[in-house]
Hints:
Blueprint: E1 2-6, E2 12-16, E3 23-26, H1 29-39
Parallel strand pairs: 1-3
Antiparallel strand pairs: 1-2
Amino acid sequence: MGTIICQICNNTIDHFENEKVSTLYGKCTCCDKEQKKASK
Length: 40
């Protein structure tokens, strides 16, 4: 089982089935919205 973690706030976004245990980093919807507001 793997985990997707937000690279900004470190919250768990999702879990996925995989042969190996791994951690992937992405952006959650909350951080993505705030980052777009900050860039305006």
